[in-house]
Amino acid sequence: MDIISYVSEMPKAELHLHIEGTLEPEMMMALAEKHGVVLPYTTLDEVHAAYNFSDLQSFLDLYYFGASVLRDESDFFDLMWAYLVKCRQQNIVHTEIMFDPQTHTDRGIAFDVMMKGYLGALKQAEAEWGQSFKLIMCFLRHLSQASAFETLGMAEPFSDDIDAVGLDSGELGNPPEKFSDVFAAAAQQGYQCVAHAGEEGPPAYIWGALNSLNVARIDHGVRCLEDDELVAQLVRDQTPLTVCPLSNVRLCVVDEMKDHPILTMLDKGLLVTVNSDDPPYFGGYLNDNFLAMVGGLGLAQDQAKQLAANSFKASFLDEEKKQYFLGALDSF
Ligand SMILES: [Zn+2]
């Protein structure tokens, strides 16, 4: 089997995907029309052109603007459903999906409207083709810890459906320590903890996420390479890093795919995984990331297999399910 078929068809998990970041330009236009939202674009080409941002903040401005067309339960259902269909097409047999409640509750959308839409699509995909999934509720780090606490409270009726809490949005100026109390409370309530750190922020933010938030995994974390002591600890503890290659190129964390350090990270023994982050904004879904690594980094089959194995090991699946998927990958 050639490498392109191999990476496309191998069973894999995705652990770093923002559902609000899967809004395709076509859906944005259709929902804007449905709800009478006036977008500053008149054609699809203009929306595609707007996806041409220069850094994390200019991306986030567009991202929050795009999310404002999501209004009723069926919008949230449709958004989630479109991504789950991609999972099926790309052999993403397990996915751990991040969602940002504050993006919606802050503009007057009820928590349960969002949640019922998302859960409806997830349960249908589970019933139709056995899609495996977990949910990660993220706090927006540019907002206050008080707002994060409020969100944690709103999630209580859905605590059985939500597996973990995370921390996302603009990293610079919003260090992990700002959220130590709400993460402690979430852990007390039984949630797993993850956080974005070391994407645009320095290695100190990764230390902060580990020491102040007690996270089980780091989202991104590529800048750990600037700190040897940190790399040694991450290797020793096998702390997973959910790396997003196309996102890093698009947001200029690295210049080009050929400069991406993910295979160096793999060689150092770090538990790295490949993920798509916000696919339509960053140039592709999970398989597109693997294919970009084939083209830009010369990704080999044994490396692809290792990365897929890591995605199951780094997941929040129980041991039995991990072994099941690892076995499926082995016999693929
Ligand atoms: Zn992210």
CATH topology annotation: TIM Barrel
Q: Catalogue the ligands.
A: zinc ion
What is the CATH class name? Alpha Beta
Number of helices: 17
pLDDT below 50 for ≥5 consecutive residues: which ranges?
none
Say which CATH homologous superfamily is assigned: Metal-dependent hydrolases
Tell me the series of helices and strands, N- to C-terminal: HEHHHHEHHEHEHEHEHEHHEHHHH
The percent range for helix content is: 40-55%
Q: Round the Cα radius of gyration to an integer and report it.
A: 19 Å
- Gross CATH architecture: Alpha-Beta Barrel
Q: How many distinct folded domains?
A: 1
Q: Tell me about the largest β-sheet.
A: 8 strands, parallel
Question: Can you put this structure into words, describing what you see?
Answer:
By secondary structure, this protein is α/β, with parallel strands linked by helices. It has a single domain (3-24, 70-330), classed as TIM Barrel, CATH 3.20.20. The protein has helices at residues 3-9, 25-35, 44-50, 56-67, 73-89, 101-105, 111-129, 145-154, 180-188, 203-212, 228-237, 245-250, 262-267, 279-282, 286-297, 301-313, 319-330; strands at residues 12-18, 92-99, 132-140, 164-168, 192-197, 217-220, 241-243, 272-274. Strands 1-2-3-4-5-6-7-8 form an 8-stranded parallel sheet. β5 (192-197), α10 and β6 (217-220) form a beta-alpha-beta unit. It is globular and about 50 Å long. It starts with a helix and ends with a helix. Zinc ion (ZN) binds at residues 16, 18, 168, 196, 219, 277.
